[in-house]
Design goal:
- The protein has a single domain, classed as Gcn5-related N-acetyltransferase (GNAT) (Aminopeptidase), CATH 3.40.630.30.
- The chain has five helices and six strands.
- A hairpin with a 2-residue loop joins strand 5 and strand 6.
- The longest helix has 22 residues.
- The radius of gyration is 16 Å and the shape is globular.
């Protein structure tokens, strides 16, 4: 979580969000959500950053504190990811979603590829953090690949009780 980029935001209503998307003046923006478990406890964060309406692309981020139960956060992360994919491709009509994964987090890279993202690049010593420079994978998911992804279809039916790959 210490590597998760979070920007200060204020909570807005669904109507305010719809108005913001429809009247987008600034070419880029960020959408952030707090992941809350069934007990009402905040357990993680997810966001779409660098959303560019004209280019129809954004960067997908998700983060959970290291102390979270791996089994518990696995399903919450998957459900949250499906909800963000649904928002990205079906609500704001993105053409492409990009995900950067720290190279030392092999499980995250595996999960990203499992969701249908394709590894598009590897950046050596690309990001400076407290521990020094770290490597990054760049992954991408096109809307057309999202819509034809049987894994996402089946997972969304199982976890969300609806097929998010059916489009808008």
């Amino acid at each position: 979580m210490n590597l998760y980029r979070i920007l200060p935001i204020k909570a807005i209503s669904k109507q305010e969000l719809q108005n913001k998307i429809a009247t987008q003046q600034n070419p880029t923006t960020t959408f952030e959500w707090v992941i809350i478990n069934n007990q009402g406890t905040a357990i993680g964060l997810t966001s779409l950053e660098n959303y560019h309406k004209g280019q129809r692309k954004a960067e997908f981020l998700i983060g959970f504190p290291a102390h979270q139960s791996k089994q518990h956060s696995k399903y919450m992360a998957l459900e949250a990811s499906l909800l963000v994919l649904n928002f990205a491709f079906n609500k704001i009509a993105l053409h492409k979603l990009i995900s950067f994964v720290y190279a030392h987090n092999q499980q995250s890279q595996k999960n990203t590829l499992h969701l249908g993202f394709k590894q598009e690049g590897y950046f050596e010593q690309h990001f400076l953090c407290q521990k020094g420079f770290i490597d990054l994978y760049q992954n991408g998911l096109l809307r057309s690949d999202f819509l034809s992804n049987l894994k996402i279809k089946n997972l969304s039916i199982k976890l969300l009780q609806r097929d998010i790959t059916r489009g808008m």
